[in-house]
Design a protein that fits this description.
Chain lengths: 236, 803
């Protein structure tokens, strides 16, 4: 689904050049749940941003669904992004001025989905994620976990091919963090492709594969064999 | 989609009530100003539009050279033009002044203003709708009169007056029709007579320029040919003939008397806004005032749009996150633009509606100010309103929307975008523009104020504050001069009357007459003729500065001795103009004195060369006595005037009402329109400064609130309040100075151009520039420091914990 070969990203300022990514190669298949770990400045967020088409690479190749993404125009990128990618952020990035319903509905508006269908899809996904009773509230009125659920709902509403999560639990306490990780696991179980950046070993253990990065390069890959922990997995 | 946009729009309105209200208010004032200007514009442009085939109609004028254009014509030209060429469909001679007279019917007496006189063809040029009678023969019988619907109602109520006889100027006229003044025309009289026919007959071979003339051509493209023919006629029938009579060649004649007069035609269609002499007595519109009004209101609209753009881009920072999120989840750039343009659309819609309310409420005052009857109607106006609406949306909406849509998603979501420098230069240059506009208005209104003040206080060369001019109408059978002499005797006996005299002139009014003055071999000087009776110059305090005044002790003073004013004396090119013999009106006159220059028309015109002579020296001027002048003692003026009135209606004129004017007040009317301009400028100045200050306040608030965290940190590190204040206000003072410097050049140039209206004017002084600078700086500091002070009082902990 995603094939990255020799991808580099160089930041240039007047005085110096910093290489954020150096010739990274990576493949993510349909249905994978991959997490990326590494210390600050290792380039993991940059990689995620490039994959999410928010940033562009300096050289190399990035193929998304067999289509080359490096060198695309802003408009085409935006098109590819809106059709294929759903985002979940550390700081949720909900629009505070819009209600939960309006927030979740946004991607559908931009994909020209008719109003009646939008309404039913938002209600459906809210039900699935357990926030149906919160649709009329504004983001600031919700707990962190609930806000992240809304963000996930917004990421999923358009049935994206891949979900990119940037430290989805970073701003959450462990209880809410667990909730969100379970949500992602459930999504994975139902067939979604997920790429997640995280600092936490515990979160990474939910994924099938963990990639360790340092200084813009991939150090190692590890396949996780998660023991399903009955205590953690049980519903609150 | 619209619902989503509307939700977020309403959210922002709710959270920015103050700024939203001010923004809408600013825009609506700007739009209202432009609506006012447009209403006036439309009104002035609607004149003569209704007249069918108006493009074929031309007003004939005569150019004497050196900027002297007379709107009058000789009775000779048009009939010749008609009989010798094939271009002309019709022509009409008319009087260039209205008269104000009594019209009587059946013992009922009405004082009617704006009585006009024209040939029968008038109604083929101005086809007024006829309520009674018909246009075709309305003025063809001798002693015919047609009345406007209003005048007919005053005299006859609802009766049909056709065939009835009325008394007018002591003659009997038969009413031949009643017309309606439905549409705006170059001439809109209350009554029309054909009296002019007598004059036309009497002067049919006379080359004096007495009548207004309008032509209707068969084809409007023939206008240049008509001019050629008119010039030909003048040369052949006037110059060549005179040269023959004088025994001179044409060239020698031209050398002595100047180039022949050149005809000039003015299309009737757009003549309302013509600048210069104009034959129709309603006069032209004030083109310059209209242009100033349009210009200023456009500036105000620009100012409020600039405000809007400023606030929108400043506000955009607060919305960066929203835009970033929208983009990530799939909004295209054009969708973001559409969303923000949509918000501008709503704001502009409110502003337009509010502007209409403002206009509707203040229209009566505006009408009073312009002396017009403007209304908020007409398809033309609504089309224009929609255009303004769209224009405001495009100018005010597209710019911030594009700016916002260009936010880089990644930067936005990384957070802290709110402290980005992006867009600051735009806002700052807009701020500079606002300062420049404000500078222009402050300087402008100050200079206009000073010029008007200068006019009010200018030494005019005469003193008319105690001199009353009483309207003196002709009576049949008796000479004006003889009647005046009899009245003079009796009036002087009234208590409080210091002197009584008369003249064939009236300072501050358009009445004037001119002739050529010849001296030795000097070129001809066109000179203004001032006929007066003894005592008149003393009464007006016009001083003799060389030689002596005219006196009743010397018989020759009423026959062959004259005075000149300084301007005329100068044209003689003699060291001592006294006792020189001049050639005027075909006879020789001796100059016995020179009087100081005094103003006759407004201060816009130079003081022309004048010849002052006793009214008996030129008998025709006796008929021109239209006023009797009375000097009152300053004590108990009211009582004296009441006495005069009593005397007047008993002994002089029992029909025409007692009408009087103080000479100085009469003259003051010549600068009334400039007082209006001063008031307008002053009012707009207040509006502009308010809008600009609001813009400054809003912008300062936004940019300072973005620095709250910085301020909190500085305070923690020990910054004192006054250092912070300095830090925060510094940049605004710099913008203020840059804006001021930008503003002074256009202000200087435009005001210089405006001052060129006046022959007598102030030099542009430095003072307004200082005052503008100081007041601008003062206001800027007040606003900025107040806001800065408020900002420095923030709770440090709150902002340090945040983020």
């Amino acid at each position: 689904m995603i094939t990255i070969t020799k991808l580099s990203k160089v930041f240039r300022t007047e005085e110096l050049e910093t290489s954020a990514l150096s010739e990274i190669s990576l493949t993510i298949n349909q249905g994978d749940f991959v997490s990326i770990m590494g210390p600050s400045g290792s380039g993991k967020s940059t990689l995620l941003n490039i994959i999410g088409l928010l940033d562009s690479a300096s050289s190399g190749s990035y193929r998304l669904l067999e289509q080359e993404m490096v060198g695309l125009k802003e408009k085409q990128k935006s098109q590819a992004r809106k059709e294929n990618i759903g985002f979940v952020f550390q700081n949720f990035n909900l629009i505070d001025e819009l209600s939960v319903f309006d927030n979740i509905e946004l991607p559908l508006i931009y994909n020209n989905v008719p109003s009646a269908e939008r309404k039913s899809r938002v209600n459906d996904i809210a039900k699935i994620l357990g926030i149906a009773h919160r649709l009329k509230h504004f983001p600031q009125q919700l707990s962190g976990g609930q806000q992240q659920r809304v963000a996930v709902a917004r990421a999923l509403i358009n049935n994206p091919k891949i979900i990119l999560a940037d430290e989805p639990t970073g701003n959450l306490d462990s209880r809410n963090g667990n909730e969100v990780m379970e949500l992602l696991t459930d999504l994975h179980a139902s067939g979604s492709t997920i790429l997640m950046v995280t600092h936490s070993d515990y979160d990474a253990s939910f994924s099938q594969k963990t990639i360790f990065m340092k200084d813009g390069a991939i150090l190692s890959e590890k396949v996780n064999h998660r023991n399903v922990d009955v205590l953690v997995n049980s519903k609150y | 989609m619209f619902k989503n946009w509307t939700n977020i729009f309403i959210y922002h309105i709710k959270n920015n009530k103050f700024f939203t209200v001010l923004n809408i208010l600013g825009l609506s004032i700007g739009i209202a100003g432009l609506i006012f200007a447009i209403l006036y514009w439309n009104d002035e442009h609607s004149y003569n539009e209704w007249i069918p085939e108006n493009e074929k109609m031309f007003i004939v004028m005569n150019d004497l050279g050196e900027g002297n254009v007379w709107a009058t014509n000789s009775a000779i030209t048009a009939p010749i033009l008609k009989s010798t060429t094939s271009y002309l469909e019709n022509y009409c001679y008319f009087y260039t002044a209205y008269s104000k007279e009594i019209i009587q019917y059946n013992g009922k007496t009405e004082l009617v203003e704006k009585i006009f006189s024209a040939q029968n063809s008038f109604f083929s040029f101005f086809p007024f709708e006829f309520k009674y009678g018909n246009a075709k023969n309305a003025l063809s019988n001798p002693q015919s009169i047609v009345l406007s619907e209003e005048t007919a109602y005053r005299l006859f109520k609802n009766e049909n007056p056709v065939g009835k006889q009325v008394r007018y100027t002591e003659k009997t006229f038969t009413v031949h029709g009643v017309y309606r003044l439905n549409e705006k025309s170059a001439v809109m009289p209350n009554a029309i007579t054909n009296e002019i026919n007598e004059d036309l007959k009497r002067l049919k071979d006379h080359w004096g320029f007495n009548f207004g003339l309008i032509l209707k051509l068969k084809n409007h493209r023939d206008a240049p040919l008509i001019v050629k023919n008119l010039n030909q006629i003048f040369l052949e029938r006037n110059y060549k003939k005179q040269a023959r009579n004088e025994g001179m060649t044409l060239d020698a004649f031209i050398k002595k008397f100047g180039e022949p007069i050149k005809a000039k035609v003015l299309p009737l269609k757009n003549s309302r806004l013509y600048k210069g002499n104009y034959p129709f007595p309603d006069g032209t519109g004030n083109l310059q005032f209209l242009q100033i009004l349009m210009g200023l209101s456009a500036l105000i609209l620009v100012l409020s749009i600039v405000n809007y753009i400023n606030l929108a881009t400043a506000n955009a920072i607060k919305r960066a996150k929203e835009v970033g999120v929208r983009k990530i989840i799939g909004a295209t750039k054009s969708q973001i633009i559409a969303q923000f343009v949509f918000e501008t659309f709503l704001i502009t819609l409110f502003s337009c509606l509010l502007a209409l309310v403002i206009v509707e409420i203040s229209l009566p005052f505006y009408n009073q100010f312009l002396n017009k009857n403007l209304i908020l109607l007409g398809s033309q106006f609504y089309v224009q309103l929609v255009l303004i609406f769209l224009l405001v949306i495009i100018v005010a909406g597209i710019f911030p929307a594009v700016y916002i849509s260009n936010f880089k998603v990644l930067n936005v979501l990384k957070g802290n975008y709110s402290r980005s420098k992006s867009g600051i230069w735009i806002r700052n240059s807009m701020l500079v523009l606002q300062f420049a506009i404000a500078t222009f208005f402050i300087i402008g209104s100050f200079i206009v104020y000073q010029q008007v003040n200068f006019m009010v206080q200018k030494e005019l060369g005469f003193n008319g504050s105690q001199v009353l001019n009483i309207a003196f109408k002709e009576k049949n059978g008796k000479g004006q001069f003889e009647r005046y002499k009899a009245i003079q005797q009796e009036m002087q006996k009234i208590k409080g009357v210091e002197a009584v005299s008369a003249g064939a002139f009236s300072i501050g009014e358009s009445e004037n007459s001119w002739a050529g003055l010849h001296y030795k071999n000097n070129p001809e000087v066109i000179i203004q003729q001032i006929g007066f009776d003894f005592g008149m110059l003393e009464m007006l305090d016009i001083k003799v500065i060389k030689g002596r005044a005219l006196t009743d002790k010397l018989a020759s003073d009423t026959i062959s001795n004259v005075l000149l004013n300084e301007a005329a004396a100068k044209t003689l090119n003699e060291k001592n103009p006294l006792n020189k013999i001049i050639d005027w009106q075909g006879e020789k006159y001796r100059v016995v004195g020179v009087v100081n220059n005094f103003h006759y028309f407004g201060l816009e015109s130079q003081i022309s060369p004048m010849i002052l002579f006793h009214i008996n020296a030129q008998k025709w001027t006796q008929k021109e006595i239209r006023n009797i002048s009375v000097k009152l003692s300053p004590k108990d003026m009211e009582t004296t005037i009441a006495e005069l009135k009593k005397f007047w209606s008993k002994k002089v004129d029992s029909e025409y009402p007692f009408e009087y004017n103080f000479v100085d007040k009469n003259f003051a009317r010549t600068y009334k329109k400039y007082e209006d301009q001063r008031n307008l400028f002053g009012l707009l100045n207040v509006v502009v400064i308010l809008i600009a200050l609001f813009g400054l306040f809003a912008l300062a608030s936004f940019s300072m609130e973005r620095r709250l965290r910085e301020i909190a940190i500085r305070k923690t590190l020990g910054a004192e309040t006054n250092i912070l204040l300095k830090e925060l206000s510094k940049q605004y003072v710099i913008f203020c100075i840059i804006g001021f410097v930008t503003g002074i050049i256009p202000a200087y140039l435009l005001l210089h151009k405006w001052l060129e209206n006046f022959a007598f004017r102030i030099d542009i002084p430095a003072l307004p520039f200082f005052i503008a600078f100081l007041s601008l700086l003062f206001l800027t500091l007040t606003i900025v420091l107040a806001k800065a002070y408020q900002v420095t009082k923030v709770d440090v902990l709150k902002y340090l914990k945040y983020e």
